[in-house]
């Protein structure tokens, strides 16, 4: 007697349930996707105890005809495809016909549906995959599926369910993704009577994003839209200051289907490039439209993974558009921005002119004015302060960026004040009159520092033109960096600057790191010409396995300007390296380059190696925290930062400048009520 036999329909459905119905969120996913395919405009989901006790999904879609109600619960019964050709043009979320029979085989299910508006429908009850009752009932147009006691007949599956909060988190996460994929559908999600999600279904994606992630993130989202011959990409990406610790904030939607695709996520992260801090990820929603023939959704039982026919073109398009989007933004993060209410009362400000004069005897008129109550037409108060004048000695800036073909014209400080020390004198901030300050703060007023910044930009652009082109050189330039005037330094780490818009704090190490990074990044474009042979080679030692890998990848180092050769055993000698490596850090830079090459398991991208090397050089050559700077050095640092292509983040993604607007400061001091 033969040993092979056909499985019964019931057992086959339970096996399929092991693939399709992994947990309560899988049930919600399959049922809600059916509602979306039914052209519903409103979908309500109610769950109890994390979905193990109750899952109810109701919609106002097309419903099912009376004769289709029973057939829908047969295995591989579907209205989505008819021939094999339809698999290459799938335009619906569901198509396999496994969801309903699989769910019914491991639960107590009840379905009420109607395809007409006459109030008549059909109700079917199934328990453990066996149909119990089929009857006509009163029902409005649409479908309502109720699933109770999930996995009641498969205790092994029920045993491995997580906590209620964990299962609820999976359900909520997928409902959020579906709401982002279909902003034109009104979704609601309730758990034990508590409303967790409710969207209006008005088609406003940004409103859905704000409802899910909060208004703070919604206000920081930037719209993205790009079209090509094969793809249409729309959506929103958050500014670099709004990040998360994982990729959970990234939603990629293909033809209305939320998918998980590593290549698309990497393309998005490459678009941010150095704008993101290490181990931080953005919030983004990308809706990708394409011909269904270019994507295969039939590669995973839960249909969460897809394959693209032109994946390289799609990822390149996403990366380029995200870079272009940030190339049009001023990415200076700010503190909280209180909105000014209509009719806000602004406290009247006294117009005080502070005049700096040599030390003299107290002026009786000043004392009298101080004692006299202020009147509308009262004269301005004259305050006399002392200034110790001396001629500063020339000194070399603490930070010395690598020599360039042309140095920017330095801006000489005003003649009325000589500035020399790293810590400004108490009278430094009061050296100008209020009229002079108002003139320097006016956007339309002539500012000598603006000339310096423009000169620095021209110098940098001329310098970049002399060097080989690089992929970052093709990126659009950011908007003009604001003209800033340094007024001091805090803890030897942060520069304090101002302009007509408010107060700015600048991380001096991050700023200098960005300046050096762009310099070294361009230099690594053609490093071989700048390599110099060492009189005494640098010796490096590795483990036997590491030495074997490096021996096969020595050509990569040559393309980065580092000439290294095996010296026997596990030892390597560095014979030459670019002469512009930071002095004293040559060995550590080459060691870190070797470590990065060893960490790459697959083929090493030479462009990434050069970028990593540029980041290493820039970090080691930059000024550090707790290092005092003179005012002239502060000005030079700000001028060179303004000439950078991206002066807003360091190569590691940390912000360089943080601003506080004048309105925010006035709000803090209750000058604006």
UniProtKB/TrEMBL annotation:
Composition skew (Low complexity), residue ranges: 423-449
Residues annotated as domain DNA mismatch repair protein S5: 209-327
Family matches, as InterPro entries: DNA_mismatch_repair_CS, DNA_mismatch_repair_MutL, DNA_mismatch_S5_2-like, HATPase_C_sf, MutL/Mlh/PMS, MutL/Mlh/Pms-like, MutL_C, MutL_C_dimsub
A Pfam entry, by short name: DNA_mis_repair
Keyword Glycosyltransferase on entry: no
Keywords: DNA damage, DNA repair, Endonuclease, Hydrolase, Nuclease
UniProt GO molecular function: endonuclease activity
Ranges of residues in domain MutL C-terminal dimerisation: 486-629
CDD domains the record matches: HATPase_MutL-MLH-PMS-like, MutL_Trans
Entries under SUPFAM superfamilies matching the protein: ATPase domain of HSP90 chaperone/DNA topoisomerase II/histidine kinase (SSF55874), DNA mismatch repair protein MutL (SSF118116), Ribosomal protein S5 domain 2-like (SSF54211)
Positions of region (Disordered): 386-456
Protein origin, superkingdom: Bacteria
Family named by the database record: Belongs to the DNA mismatch repair MutL/HexB family.
Record's function text: This protein is involved in the repair of mismatches in DNA. It is required for dam-dependent methyl-directed DNA mismatch repair. May act as a 'molecular matchmaker', a protein that promotes the formation of a stable complex between two or more DNA-binding proteins in an ATP-dependent manner without itself being part of a final effector complex.
HAMAP family the record matches: DNA_mis_repair
Listed NCBIfam families: mutl, PRK00095.1-3
Protein name per Swiss-Prot or TrEMBL: DNA mismatch repair protein MutL
Source organism per UniProt: Paenibacillus chondroitinus
Lineage of origin: Bacteria, Bacillati, Bacillota, Bacilli, Bacillales
Gene from which this protein is expressed: mutL
């Amino acid at each position: 007697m033969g040993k092979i036999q056909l499985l019964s329909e019931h057992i086959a459905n339970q096996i399929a349930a092991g693939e399709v119905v992994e947990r309560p969120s899988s049930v919600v996913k399959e049922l809600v996707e059916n509602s979306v395919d039914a052209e519903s405009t409103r979908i309500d989901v109610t769950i109890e105890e994390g979905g193990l006790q109750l899952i109810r999904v109701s919609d106002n879609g097309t419903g099912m005809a009376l004769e289709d109600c029973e057939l829908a619960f047969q295995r591989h019964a579907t209205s989505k495809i008819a021939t094999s050709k339809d698999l290459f043009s799938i335009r619906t979320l569901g198509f396999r016909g496994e969801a309903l029979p699989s769910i019914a085989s491991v639960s107590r299910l009840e379905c009420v549906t109607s395809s007409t508006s006459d109030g008549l429908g059909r109700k079917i009850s199934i328990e453990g995959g066996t149909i119990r009752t089929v009857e006509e009932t009163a029902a409005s147009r649409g479908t309502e599926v109720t699933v109770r006691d999930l996995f009641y007949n498969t205790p092994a599956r029920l045993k491995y369910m997580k906590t209620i909060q964990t299962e609820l988190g999976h359900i909520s996460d997928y409902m959020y993704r579906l709401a982002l994929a279909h902003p034109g559908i009104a979704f609601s999600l309730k758990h034990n009577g508590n409303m967790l999600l409710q969207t209006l279904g008005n088609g406003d994606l940004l409103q859905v994003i704000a409802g899910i992630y909060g208004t703070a993130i919604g206000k920081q989202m930037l719209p993205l839209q790009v079209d090509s011959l094969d793809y249409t990409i729309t959506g929103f990406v958050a500014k670099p200051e709004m990040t998360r610790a994982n990729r959970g904030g990234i939603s990629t939607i293909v033809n209305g289907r939320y998918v998980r695709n590593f290549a698309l996520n990497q393309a998005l992260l490459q678009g941010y490039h150095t704008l993101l801090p290490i181990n931080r990820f953005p919030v983004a929603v990308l809706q990708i439209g394409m011909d269904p023939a270019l994507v295969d959704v039939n590669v995973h039982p839960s249909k969460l993974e897809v394959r693209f026919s032109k994946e390289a073109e799609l990822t390149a398009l996403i990366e380029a558009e995200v870079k272009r989007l940030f190339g049009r933004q001023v990415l200076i993060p700010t503190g909280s921005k209180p909105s000014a209410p209509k009719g806000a009362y602004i406290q009247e400000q006294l117009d005080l002119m502070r005049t700096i004069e040599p030390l003299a005897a107290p002026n009786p008129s000043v004392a009298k004015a101080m004692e006299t109550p202020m009147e509308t037409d009262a004269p301005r108060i004259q305050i006399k302060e002392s200034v110790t004048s001396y001629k500063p000695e020339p000194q070399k800036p603490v930070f010395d960026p690598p020599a360039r073909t042309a140095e920017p014209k330095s801006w000489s400080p005003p003649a009325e004040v000589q500035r020399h020390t790293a810590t400004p004198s108490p009278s430094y901030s009061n050296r100008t009159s209020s009229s002079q300050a108002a003139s320097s703060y006016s956007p339309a007023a002539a500012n000598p520092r603006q000339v310096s910044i423009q000169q620095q930009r021209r110098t940098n652009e001329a310098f970049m033109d002399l060097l080989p082109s690089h992929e970052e050189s093709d990126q659009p330039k950011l908007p003009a960096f604001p003209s800033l005037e340094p007024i001091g330094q805090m803890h030897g780490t942060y520069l304090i600057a101002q302009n007509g818009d408010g107060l700015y704090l600048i991380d001096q190490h991050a700023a200098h790191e960005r300046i050096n990074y762009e310099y070294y990044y361009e230099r690594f474009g053609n490093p071989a010409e700048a390599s110099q042979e060492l009189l005494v080679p640098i010796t490096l030692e590795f483990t036997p396995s590491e030495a074997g890998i490096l021996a096969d990848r020595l050509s990569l180092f040559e393309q980065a300007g580092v000439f290294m050769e095996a010296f026997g055993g596990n030892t390597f000698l560095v014979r030459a390296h670019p002469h512009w490596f930071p002095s004293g850090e040559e060995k550590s830079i080459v060691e870190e380059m070797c470590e990065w090459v060893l960490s790459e398991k697959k083929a090493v991208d030479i462009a990434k190696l050069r970028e990593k090397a540029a980041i290493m050089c820039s970090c080691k050559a930059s000024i550090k925290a707790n290092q005092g700077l003179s005012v002239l050095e502060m000005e030079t640092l700000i001028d060179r930062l303004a000439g950078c292509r991206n002066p807003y983040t360091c190569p590691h993604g940390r912000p360089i400048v943080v601003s506080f607007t004048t309105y925010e400061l006035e709000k803090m001091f209750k000058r604006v009520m």
